[in-house]
Amino acid sequence: MAAREKDISTTSSMAATADKHELYEEAVQNVEEEVRFFKATFKEIVGRDALVFREDFCGTASASCEWARQGSDHRAIGVDLCADTLQWGRDKRLSKLTSEEQSRVTLIEGDVLNSPAEAADILGASNFSYWCFHTRADLLAYFKAAYANIKDDGLFFLDIYGGSEAFEEMKEKTKHDDFTYVWHQKNYYPVTAEYICQIHFHFPDKSKMKKAFTYHWRLWTMPEVRELLVEAGFAKSIVYWEGTDEDGGGNGVFEPEERGEADAGWIAYIIAQK
Ligand SMILES: C[S@@+](CC[C@H](N)C(=O)[O-])C[C@H]1O[C@@H](n2cnc3c(N)ncnc32)[C@H](O)[C@@H]1O
User: Fold this and answer.
1) Is the C-beta atom of 60 inside 6 A of ligand 1?
2) 1 band by pLDDT with thresholds 50, 70 and 90
3) Which of 107, 156, 224, 240 could form a disulfide with 254 if both were Cys (CB 3.0 to 4.6 A apart)?
4) 152 vs 166: CA distance, rounded Å
5) Would 62 be classed as within a structural domain?
6) Cα separation of 272 and 59, whole Å?
7) Per the domain annotation, does 181 fall within a domain?
8) How many domains does the chain have?
9) Whose CA is nearest to atom 27 of ligand 1?
10) Which of the listed residues 20, 29, 81, 267 should we mutate to test ligand 1's pocket, taking the one with most ligand atoms within 8 A of CB?
């Protein structure tokens, strides 16, 4: 009897009924702020408005949808390998746009290495997704594909994090209203830089959604990435480093930076120009 009761409470628990993509977006993404940053920084560097946005590793394509909301001349292309995640994005995000806005979003189920489309003003690869490439040869191949997928004056935006804490095996918990987001740096192997990270969600009823997402990455460093961008053909890259608030945490404001500082956990954008 006790076991049966436990089964029932498990299937009706907050973890069993929650939607992992909704939780992920609330915990990890801020597409409004990201699109604002992409647009403003493009204008600052290139001197015109960006209209075509390509979102590699788009997942649920939320940033692409946000881009299409920016105006009737804005077009977005989202690329992801995972059919289920793209379908979730069509059902839960694309469907929230007007039909006219939807007509300006193209979703491609494909590999970022081999999914050509209209050349973009901005190509964004967010949330460290390019770390799925483990060798210099594979990351170079991706950067060459990115180069081919943007216009001559287009920009390639990549995010990156680092600092001593990035190399630690640890869990970091962040409380939200209805759940706790757990970022788990499960394994880091110094010989190969192989890096296994997971996302778990914990709920007020004590139920847990463990391993909602698992990433098998290489932990790349900033100079490695920037050198490979040059090898791929990009003329230069600019680093936009996050500023700090009064408590010493990140303030979400990214400014150009030549050297950075030895913060234990830093985050930055690398913006590559042809
Ligand atoms: C960390 S999620 C990023 C989701 C979202 N773009 C964000 O910023 O949070 C990584 C996504 O990359 C996709 N992915 C991994 N390798 C890929 C590849 N070679 N080509 C296209 N998509 C890939 C996965 O299916 C997954 O949806």
Assistant:
1) no
2) very low
3) 240
4) 34
5) yes
6) 22
7) no
8) 1
9) 59
10) 81
Which residue's CA is minimally distant from atom 12 of ligand 1?
Answer: 57
- Measured in Å, residue 13 CA sits from the centre of ligand 1 at 28
Query: How many whole angstroms separate alpha carbon 36 and alpha carbon 66?
Result: 10
Question: Where residue 96 sits, what CATH number does that domain have?
Answer: 3.40.50.150
User: What is the number of the ligand 1 atom nearest to the C-alpha of 128?
Assistant: 1
31 closest CA partner among 59, 6, 65: 65
The tokens for 206 are 């004590």
Q: Which residues face 200 on adjacent strands?
A: 182
Q: Are the beta carbons of 255 and 241 closer than 8 angstroms? A: yes
What six digits make up the tokens of 226? 């920037």
DSSP string, 215-258: EEEE---HHHHHHHHHHTT-SEEEEEEEEE-TTSSEEEEEEE-S
The reply to whether 11 falls in a domain is no
Query: Domain range for residue 47?
Result: 22-162+220-273
State the pLDDT confidence band at 12, using cuts at 50, 70 and 90.
confident
* Helices 222-231, 136-148: crossing angle, 10 deg rounding: 60
193 in any annotated domain: no
pTM of the shown model? 0.95
DSSP 165-212: GGGS-EEEEEE-SS-EEEEEEEEEETTTTEEEEEEEEE-TTS-EEEEE
3-state secondary structure of 45: helix
User: Residue 3 — pLDDT band, cuts 50, 70, 90?
Assistant: very low
Atom of ligand 1 nearest to the CA of 59: 27
Q: How far does the centroid of ligand 1 lie from the alpha carbon of residue 114, in Å?
A: 14
